[in-house]
Amino acid sequence: MLGISVARAESGRLGKVEFLLQLGKFGLELFCMANAGPPSQNPFVSRNREDAGFEEELWQEGLGAFYREDDETALTLLLEVVESNPKNLRAIFLAMLCAANLSDEETLEELYGVIRRKGSRHPYAVGCEAVRAMFYANYERAEHLFKMALRALPDDIDLNIGLGILYDQNGDGDKSAEVYRRVLELAPDNIRARISLGMSLAISGEYLSALAEYEYAKRLDPSVENPHQHLGRDFYSEGMIAEAVQEFMIAITEEPDEPTAYFFLMDCYKRLGQVDEALDVYELIRERFKDRSEELCGLYQQFQLFQEAKPILEKLVQEHPDDVELLLQLSQVCQETGDLNTAIKVLNRALDSFPDAFLLWSNLARLYYEDRDYQKAVMAARRAIQLNPEDGEIYGLLSDALLFLGKFEEAEASAREMERARDRAWQRYQQRFAGKDETGDSDQ
C-alpha cells in the first residue's frame, strides 16, 4: 500500500485542491472521511474489491479521466490501481503526471519512492524521472529523459502526452503542438491531445484552428467544456477581453444552463469598465441559477464574490458540521469579508475534530495575528511548528508576533530558525532539481 488516500473525486468547490494539498496526506484522508457518505453512495467503497475485474474497471475509468483532462478524478482512480497493483508502471507514471499537474508534491514524491525502490529502467520508470524533473523545473533534464523513454517506445501515447505537457510548461508552443499532432496521428480521438493542441494553437495566435480542435473534442465527448467558452478563456488569459466577451456570449447562447460563462462574461464587463452590463449579468445569474446556489459557491469564490458565497457556505456547514474542508472555506470567506471573529471560531471548531492538522493551526495563527491577538498567535504558531518544523513561513509570523509582545530575544531566535528552515528547503529543492533522492543518490 502506498499510504495515500484516494478520496479526490469531487471537484465542484473552489479551493478544495489548494486546501487539501496543503493539508497533505492528512487532508486527503480527511476529505475521504468528510465526503464518503454511506457505502452505497461512494463508488470507491461500494465496489467489490474481490471482483476479478475491479482493477481493470478502475484502470479504464482512470485512463478515461486522464484523457478527458480530469486530473483530480484520474489521480484518485490511478492511486487505487497502484495500491491494488504496485507493479503497474504505466499507472504510476500517469499518477505522477496528474500529481505534477495538480502541484501535489507529496503524492508525487511518494510515487517516485515506489519507482525508486523498484530500481526499474523500464521506459515508464524513466518517464517518472522525467515528470519529477519537470515538476522541479529542470526542463532540460526532463526533455532528455522523456526522449530517452520515447526512443524505447516511440509510439506510446502517454509518454508523448507527457512530453507535450513539458513543452507547455516551458512555453515552447510550437514543440508542444508538434507532439500533440503526433499523438493524434496515433489516436485521432484522444480528447486530451485535441484540447491540448487547441491550447497550443491559441497561444500561438491561431484562434480559429484552436476553436476547431475544441469543437472536435466536444463532438467526441459532449461533457467537455463548450468550445467557445474555452476559446473565451484563452482570450481572457491573454488580456483580449473584448474578444473574450464575444466567445462567452456565444457559449451562453449554446449552453444557457451552464453557469461558468456567465461569471466570466460578468468579469469581462467589469474589466472593460462596463458596470451596468456587469450588473445585468450578475442579476441574471442570481435569477437563472437561484435554485443552484450550492453549485455556484465555488464560482462566487473564484470571482471574489465573497458576500454571496458566505451564506451558502454557512448553510452547507449547518448541513455538514464535520466537513473540515467546508469549515476551511467558510473561515477563508469570513476573513475576506472582514469577519475575523467568525473566521477564528470556525477554525477552532475544525480543530476540535482534527487537533493535529498543521494547516488549521498555521491559518489560525495568521488570523490571530491579523486580529492583533499576538499572544494567541504565538501559541498557535508554536503548535503549528511542532506539527511541521520545516515550514519556514510560520517562523516569520511567530517572530513578528513575538516582536509585538516585546520578546526580542525569542523573536530573533525564531528568525534564525526560519532561515535554517529555508536553507533546508532550498537544499531539498536543489537535490530534487538534480534528480537526486533524499540521500543524494541519482538514477542518471
Structure, briefly:
With 444 residues, this protein is mainly α. Helix content is 74%, strand content 0%.
What does the model show?
With 444 residues, this protein is mainly α. It is 74% helix and 0% strand. It is globular, with a radius of gyration of 23 Å.
Structural class category: mainly alpha
- The top level CATH class name of the domain at 1-135: Mainly Alpha
* Poorly predicted segments: 1-50
Work out the radius of gyration.
23 Å
Average pLDDT number: 86
Give the beta-strand count.
Answer: 0
Largest beta-sheet characterization: none
Morphology call = globular
**Strand percentage, roughly?**
under 5%
Order of helices and strands: HHHHHHHHHHHHHHHHHHHHHHHHH
CATH architecture of the domain at 1-135: Alpha Horseshoe
Main features:
mainly alpha; Serine Threonine Protein Phosphatase 5, Tetratricopeptide repeat; 74% helix; globular; TPR-like_helical_dom_sf; repeat
